[in-house]
Here is the input.
Amino acid sequence: MQVKINISLKTGVLDPQGRAVENALSGLGFTDASQVRIGKQITLDIDAEDSARAEQRAARMCESLLANTVIEDYSIEVIDAS
Amino acid sequence: MQVKINISLKTGVLDPQGRAVENALSGLGFTDASQVRIGKQITLDIDAEDSARAEQRAARMCESLLANTVIEDYSIEVIDAS
Amino acid sequence: MRSAILIFPGSNCDRDMMVAVERITGRRPALVWHKDSQLDPVDIVIIPGGFSFGDYLRCGALAARAPAMEAVIDHASRGGAVLGVCNGFQILLETGLLPGTLVRNGGLKFVCREVRLAVQETLETPFLDDLSSGTELRIPVAHNEGNYFADDALLDSLEEGGQIALRYIENDPTRTANPNGSARNIAGILSANGRVMGMMPHPERAMGNGHPSEDGRKFLTSVLEGVAR
Amino acid sequence: MSKANEMSFNDAEQMGLSFEEWQLILKRLERTPNLCELGIFSAMWSEHCSYKSSKKWLKTLPTEGEQVIQGPGENAGVVDIGDGLAAVFKIESHNHPSFIEPYQGAATGVGGILRDVFTMGARPIALLNALRFGDIEHEKTKHLLSGVVAGIGGYGNCIGIPTVGGEVNFHSSYNGNILVNAMAVGLAHSDRIFYSAATGSGNPVIYVGAKTGRDGIHGATMASAEFSDETESKRPTVQVGDPFTGKLLMEACLELMAADAVLSIQDMGAAGLTSSSVEMASKGGLGMEIDLDLVPVREEAMSAYEIMLSESQERMLMVIKPEQAETARAIFEKWDLDFMPIGKVTDTERLVLLKDNEIACDIPLAPLVDDAPEYDRPYRPEELQPVLSTEQLEKDLPLAEVLQRLLASADLCSRRWIYEQYDSDVMADTITGPGGDAALVRIHNTDKGLAVSTDCTPRYVDADPFEGGKQAVCEAYRNISASGAKPLAVTNNLNFGNPEKQDIMAQIVGAVNGMGNACRTLNTPVVSGNVSLYNETDSMAIQPCPVIGMIGVIDDWTKAKGCGLANAGKALFVVGQSDDVKDGWLGCSVYAREIAGREGGAPPSVDPALEGRNGTLIRQAIESELIEAAHDISDGGLVVALAEMVMAGQCGAKITCPEGGSLHGWAFGEDQARYIAVVSDVPAFTALCAASEVEAIQIGETISECELTLAGLPPISKEDMVAWHSKTIDNLMG
Ligand SMILES: Nc1ncnc2c1ncn2[C@@H]1O[C@H](COP(=O)(O)OP(=O)(O)O)[C@@H](O)[C@H]1O
Ligand SMILES: [Mg+2]
Here is the structure.
């Protein structure tokens, strides 16, 4: 089952990368962009009988490795429930 | 308008981080995970009159900075069309 | 011999490179701030190492779009010589002046150590004039993203076109020659016209005089004399 | 100020203040404080900012000497290194944040100590770190080690200051409480040092650098509270480092200082805007008025309390010459940094803060600093440990097997996995990087070099705080001397458990006394430092760890020596040992712990006067080119030191062992004040030893085969030693 995990910085946590990208965008003339935040998107296949189970496994993986829960939030989306 | 941009490596492009994460997951007992790929998710606000226009601007930003189109694909989702 | 060194916010090998060039040529390079879109005529532009713009987004990506780089692209399009070291190499790839890309080191760790390199048989280029193919050099690397990646077709064409300039060769029996997983042990490449070169190792840190090696000096001397001819 | 904002003792207690401290605040203010004011008191009176438990003892340290330009009390210490140049250096801990978030905790630790150094007008030229992790097999160690090392590299590599040295130990007492201490060394002109005392009532107060967010609010108080497993779930917001902005801030500040626009300057470290504004104003005997609405913020609706206590990184506060304001602004704009006049210096001796056009805080400065509590905490030393004899510890094992186990042990194995993640060469002046004794960094464009080392042996301090305190200083002294440099001064980081416990307080007292004793004898005054207490988890204290960071200077770096064996046929001497020695001090040694399975026992005694004589001899011999390599003998003793010299070099060593006595005691004992020297001119060297009344004996010679041969035993090849030594951490980290 294909799973997408989005990992983003918690609100309030400094995102130096987002800030630098925002500056660069505005330097390139994209002054219409603001509030740039940069997170990760992890896609993976999980061998599971149903999407509930896949989601549960993904959450475990986030808690134990994929996300740094001190400063990051994560959300999970199971794409392919075939 | 809030926009989410997902940037992922093209198939065939080496993803050392994805590979390492997959190994680490399996080391932790998550042998049900495979095909791990790591991409970026950029969220930003675009000042635009409608979502079509916001999407168009986001695509421009991807082409000129946010994605390295030699090795990366991008997709755009306009979240908030209020 | 007129040279210019670019400085981006976050460059941190600019002074080291300036000192090295001045020591070899006796002449101080012009320092070009990233916001300058003007570049006085020079024999070579050097893009030094560091973490331009914090290496945020992708290393070299933000620097590649700075005004000074437009001038460099212009200089290169007129056949001017350009050398990019480490972050400078990454920037040249982002501008498209060199083909391919550099991704995270295979070990996913920053790596700082001396490597051994072999000069390759290449197309006609001023950079390697005084270094015959097979020459071995000991020069340190220090980077997070030095893992050269390109598809096989591109790698084959680089190989056939003599665009691979430097390769990692075995150095220390306790580990692999290649410090970062780079495709075909590539440490440095040339543009198709032989006038633009990018490399991961830092020659300015192997200048003798207290450094463990002086092969960087040998290499830079070849580059600087070559482009001045 | 409205009554609704009035705080109670309950609030004060939550912020870590005692009832007496609360009463004192009421008395000094003659009214009840509001939240912002109470927050400021609690931060300034926290252990971290006020040193209330340690101050009494810190005052006993020697801080003066003709080389000292600035001792403790400023952002960093300053020492004269001749030719109009000064070395500016300090060490600082980031223990608790690094346990919670190893990458960011360590990274911001490096960023913070760098700011302390460039705040004084110095360009940083070297970084070091002293780390302590739990048992190498403990489940958390791998994660913490990889995060901390990546974080240190992440900041230092990006900002472009070489990380040239440091030390790491592993011990179960750090399982729940690691130590991450970072040291930075900078270079300045001795007549161009910048200080923090505000000057000139009416002068503008400028905020520069990154914007303020809600990062690490009350970090200073957190660093002063004992850990419990609960704190882990109540995690406060972690500070995130931004080395890129740090680099811009460093360049902009140095450029501004060169433009002669700065009157006083202070980084915002622990307790952010609170401690910087209070310290600047109070040191200048002045007051300060700040309009908090002008502070650049990156989050909405931040309260006065939050703005004052935020620990957002990469920020500075300064007082500039009013006529230079435009020059200053232009420099910060060039570097794309915020530059904001937020207030002015006053002569009221009060800190007045405005927020939303109201007075958010109006307090006298004197009590914040002068009335900061100072405790004379009771202490009760533990009974001294018994001296363990060699017979109690020696195991019947072949020497090669002991050497194999020692070289592979967590505390002696190669640190390559760690230091290769640090850019140790950037700035192109690193002469000796990590992996040897002291690191040696050339002063750019000169013949001069600075040698730097960090040292501490916690197991000695644990067994005998006084001897252990002395030993930390003496080991650093030996490392600096072995490179040929003259030791000048030290910085120190006192990492201990809960000082409210009498045995812990006794460790602090003993170690500080020991440090002071050695520093006095060796004329290496203490010019800066840091204290980190409450390093406990669930009441388990760490092994006490008073880290010493020492610097020394060598006038001609080309004369400096490394420890590798380079040429065959040279005499090998042990300096500091007489020829009748047939045994050694195994108690409290690495041998005792790793081979005999026994911790504790009295550590070897340390004689700073002897260290001074022996170190001076080594330096003289290097200066007169009588020796071509030198290495101090420390953890693991003589044979481990020899093995390290073989591994670092291109040839081997053949050694004669004494007859009778104990081979293991002689080989692995950790008696102090000793060096191994490769002597190229034996008559001149022995004459110098005799004249200096230093004991030295020849124990063998260098040989062309790359192996270590001890008379009567099979040779041990360099290849084998490298294999034993190189893999432990690699294997752990996978
Ligand atoms: N153990 C110590 N030995 C000597 N000086 C110390 C020690 N601990 C702290 N100091 C000095 O006390 C002052 C305050 O230290 P600290 O609060 O860490 O400064 P900062 O806020 O600049 O980080 C500094 O001058 C520091 O050098
Ligand atoms: Mg400070």
